[in-house]
Design brief:
In chain A, 0% of the residues lie in helices and 38% in strands. Chain A has one domain: Methylamine Dehydrogenase, Chain H (7 Propeller), CATH 2.130.10. Chain A is built from no helices and 30 strands. The model of chain A has no long low-confidence stretch (mean pLDDT 97). Chain B has a single domain (2-96), classed as Ubiquitin-like (UB roll) (Roll), CATH 3.10.20.30. The radius of gyration of chain B is 13 Å and the shape is globular. The chains are: A mainly beta (371), B alpha+beta (101). The A-B interface holds A 34-36, 57-63, 76, 79-82, 102 and B 10, 12-13, 15-16, 46, 48-51, 53-55, 60, 62-63, 96-97, 99-100.
């Protein structure tokens, strides 16, 4: 029988949750890397028992972990992320030049075909790749050095590279996103890059339609339509149908188009999920009611999903990497909150149940569908 | 000449490395902070980058080095540590700041 494994990174450790295909009864592991922030964990599509985790702390910096047995045991792998050459400067919050400094790994993206190849998106923004199972990391410096880097600036959470999308139909194409610089694409396996932000509009930068400077929060897509991208920006939900060459707003009837998480149904490429958040200063849902919004039309028309979610006195946030889908016949949707809850739906979002209620603040959720 | 130096680790690094609170390392030549940390990282590679920044080689800001009731954090990494540490009578303490949440 199929089963689902959730990889939950939190403010104070990592948790592995398992359930059979019914997804009603979940086992929750004891915390791994207890006391450390786990920004992200992700399994290899080529070998689901190969999982990578980013473990970080203010005291001792970055540690990378790897499991070869589905998260039961872990070994520390390489944690040296050295920028290529003299890294130069980006903009600081006050607009002054600030030297690039490695801080942490925000997002891990294993190769679609090779368990030993994995990408890491880091703060200060850069993309690294390992070809030896995480033992050593090399920067794909063409991103940081393509020319716009000195104009990038940190968002409130830091200047992080948080989204890495590998194209299942074109191994040379990679899309990444940085807060607050925007989205970028490579069509040659990560050697050269260009901004793909045409159509984005951001009032917080001097030129709202500038080539870079946009605070992209997350991008998602369906693997069968790699050129269709859905973006949750600082404000605005956006859509591209040409791999990011151009974007149009699809916020439609959302009650607020601020938010962090966005994801796409596993079997319906036009079904998209977001969690609207009141504003960029109030990082909680409108009216204390936690609602996922679903569009079955690829944006513009959105419906609130509330069954099983708290509808009063709820003031949690759902962070950018904290939503995931499984690929069982009835698609499962999962998200974690800064209040330590993990919610799941086995009916495409029509109803929800709390899988975990009292974890540390959830930073990331990934779902693995096991045969 | 090789000396055995005692090093006390903060709790989170004990867990990371699977070690007890105090470990012993052999230091060749002059016993300095740099020599102690080089020996520690060579014996326990998982600690590389967690005490000193990989690139700059500098002590991480939220860790401090104490010994013999002295704060050695701002000494040169190439200064000799107190004799009691070099002779193994006192541990070299790596302390995590009371910080964070």
């Amino acid at each position: 029988m199929s089963r689902v494994r959730l990889l939950v990174g939190t403010h104070k450790g990592a948790f592995v949750l398992n359930a059979d295909g019914a997804r009603k009864d979940w086992t929750i592991s004891s915390p791994f890397f207890a006391g450390w922030e786990v920004y992200h964990m992700k399994g290899s599509p080529a070998d689901p028992d190969r999982i990578y985790a980013s473990q970080t702390s203010g005291w001792s910096g970055q540690v990378m972990q790897r499991s070869d047995d589905g998260g039961d045991t872990w070994q520390a792998v390489g944690n040296k992320f050295a920028y290529d050459g003299v890294p130069g400067t980006h903009q600081w919050y006050d607009g002054t030049p600030h030297p690039w400094e490695f801080k942490r790994v925000w997002h891990i993206e294993p190769s679609l075909s090779c368990p030993d190849t994995v990408y890491a998106g880091v703060e200060d923004a850069a993309l690294f790749r390992s070809s030896d199972g995480g033992q050593t990391w090399q920067e794909l410096a063409g991103l940081r050095q393509h020319g716009t880097g000195p104009a990038w600036q940190p968002g409130a959470g830091g200047m992080c590279l948080h989204t890495i999308l590998l194209d299942p139909t074109n191994p040379e194409r990679i899309v990444i996103a940085i807060s607050a610089a925007g989205a970028f694409r490579s069509d040659d396996g990560g050697q050269s890059w260009r901004p793909i932000n045409r159509g984005l509009r951001s009032q917080f930068i001097p030129n709202p339609t500038a080539e870079v400077g946009h605070c992209v929060h997350h991008i998602a897509r369906h693997p069968s339509r790699p050129d269709t991208l859905f973006m949750q920006k600082h404000w605005d939900v956006m859509r591209s149908d040409d791999a990011g060459d151009s974007w149009r707003e699809v916020s439609g009837n959302l009650p607020t188009d601020f938010g962090f998480a966005i994801d796409v149904h596993a079997h319906e490429p036009e079904t998209v999920y977001v969690v609207p958040i009141k504003s960029d200063s109030e990082h909680f849902p409108l009216d204390g009611q936690l609602k996922v919004y679903r569009s079955r039309t690829g944006g513009e028309e959105w419906e609130p999903l509330t069954k099983g979610l708290p509808q009063s006195h709820c003031y949690v946030n759902v962070l950018r990497d904290a939503m995931a889908v499984d690929s069982l016949d009835s698609c499962g949707i999962y998200f974690g909150t800064t209040g330590g809850q993990v919610y799941g739906s086995t009916d495409g979002g029509d109803s929800w149940q709390a899988i975990a209620r009292d974890l540390p603040a959830v930073l990331s959720v990934e779902a693995q569908t096991m045969p | 000449m090789s000396r055995v130096v005692r090093v006390e680790l903060p709790a989170h690094l004990c867990v990371l490395a699977g070690l007890g609170r105090e470990v012993e390392v052999s230091v060749e030549g002059a016993v300095t902070q740099r020599a102690i940390l080089d020996a520690l990282e060579a014996k326990y590679p998982v600690l590389q980058g967690t005490i000193r920044d990989h690139t700059s080689g500098l002590r991480r800001p939220f860790l401090r080095f104490f010994a013999c009731e002295q704060d050695l954090s701002h000494d040169s990494p190439d200064d000799a540590v107190p004799d009691a540490v070099a002779e193994g009578r006192e541990p070299f303490l790596i302390i995590a700041a009371i910080a964070g949440g």
